[in-house]
Amino acid sequence: MPTRDLLGALFVPSRVAAVIVLAAGEGTRMRSATPKVLHTLGGRTMLGHVLAAAEALQPEHLLVVVGHARERVAAELTGQARAVVQQTQDGTGHAVRVALQGLDHLEGTIVVVPGDAPLLTGATLQKLVDTHNAESAATTLLTARVQDPTGYGRVTRDATGVTGVVEHKDATEEQRRIDEVATSVYAFAAGPLREALGQLRTDNAQGEQYLTDVVGLHKSAGLTVSAEVAEDPDETRGVNDRVQLAELARILRDRIVQQHQRNGVAVLDPQTTWIDSGVTIEPDATIAQNSQLHGATTVARDAVIGPDTTLTDCTVSQGANVLKSVATGALIGADATVGPYSFLRPGTVLGAKSKIGAFVEAKNAQVGDASKVPHLSYVGDVTIGERSNIGAGTIVVNYDGQHKHRTTVGSDVRVGSNNSLIAPVAIGDNAYTAAGSAITEDVPNGALGLAREKQRNIEGWVARKRPAKGEQPA
Ligand code: UD1
Ligand code: CA
């Protein structure tokens, strides 16, 4: 029905034709072999953060202009993002021209963002696009008011609004006092953008085609130029060196921690808690001091992480407790406890109410429900059943110098202290092993495995062999 169609058309926001991410620059001030946009904060590359913000707009095209270290940057692209090579870095305007080559018929809104502004959010970009659409503008630029505008392009205004952007190096003393700066984030109408890009000149201090000049060109052509001042100027901050990268990482840390706190997570010391963007935490979990949650880690409700714990790509179930420990690629069952001072490596799966105590290393170890490895052990390539106890100081000897072998321990087993379980070996249900045993053969269900030298005492040995000082041997 036409009415419905009309209503639909009214309520579907006009689609973003393309987002262009500028990422061809070298980033020399990072002094790094890694291209600038591939440096990370919050567990993601700068470019990864920018792409996530861009994807929130659901653009038809997501183009990343690459130049310096193009293969490495292009290799990091995810989703629909496509690399466009800018052979020589002739300026931001030139970069956008290159991106639009072959897209001559593109209509609608084109958004441009710099690849080194990782705190930019999809919400801010959406707001910019909404303003742009509402005002039917040719250019809408995101600006920011900053304490120290040195180095930035300054936004010039008159009674009618924004008139242009003048780069720091081209600005007069008076213009340099302007504290409203260009952020390199824009929404453009495709047609007028293409037209203005064709008119860019290079008679400026840097001999480059400035994208900022599009603003003045549109204004002089009588088109609508609108501007939105960023609510949170931090969002628009760029990274030029490692000092700025660390500052932005700190801002991002606070942002992520506060998001979790608002969702009901107890973060006891936000300043020493670092949580990656991809981590999920349920309400009523507690993250204690000096803890880091990385990668795809998930933490369920009522779990307590830390203090002093680092988890990477771990799944922590409800009510589990991980104290002063390091874990990577581990699944920690409900109400399980880990630590202090233990190290869980990939493939470790801990059952419900199981326990990994102090100074234990586990690798590719399945520990069944309510089983315990309480002290000073290495458990590698082993499957342990339920309700079993592994004595203090036990080593699962999984490596014969050439190959790794697997060990199985049944349910309700008591492995004595200071055992070596020399793989491959199997210990049956309800079995015991004697303290100090080197177990090389399977122990049947319910048996005692005893594998150590029988003790003998040599009477009078000390007096004969170790006489007190000054005494003569007998
Ligand atoms: C640019 C703006 C300036 C603004 C500032 C905000 C211009 C001319 N100036 O200055 O008004 O205040 O950003 O941070 O646009 N790039 C390319 N190809 C090129 C040149 C640059 O892809 O040929 C990329 C860079 O990798 C970077 C972005 O564009 O991601 C911005 O370039 P940069 O040289 O950092 O511009 P600024 O001098 O900071
Ligand atoms: Ca810059």
Give an account of the 3D structure.
Helix 7 (190-197) crosses helix 8. The protein has 474 residues and is α/β, with parallel strands linked by helices. 20% of the residues lie in helices and 29% in strands. The longest helix has 21 residues, at 242-262. The protein has 2 domains: 3-236, Alpha-Beta Complex (Spore Coat Polysaccharide Biosynthesis Protein SpsA, Chain A); 266-449, Hexapeptide repeat proteins (UDP N-Acetylglucosamine Acyltransferase, domain 1), CATH 2.160.10. Strands 13, 14, 16, 17, 19, 20, 22, 23, 25, 26, 28, 30, 33 and 36 form a 14-stranded parallel β-sheet that branches. The radius of gyration is 32 Å and the shape is elongated. A hairpin with a 2-residue loop joins strand 8 and strand 9. Uridine-diphosphate-N-acetylglucosamine binds at residues 22-25, 65, 86, 89-92, 94-95, 114-116, 152-153, 165, 167, 181-184, 210-212, 238.
List keywords for this structure.
disordered N terminus; binds uridine-diphosphate-N-acetylglucosamine; alpha/beta; single chain; UDP N-Acetylglucosamine Acyltransferase, domain 1; Spore Coat Polysaccharide Biosynthesis Protein SpsA, Chain A; 2 domains; 14-stranded parallel β-sheet; binds calcium ion; 474 residues; seven-stranded mixed β-sheet
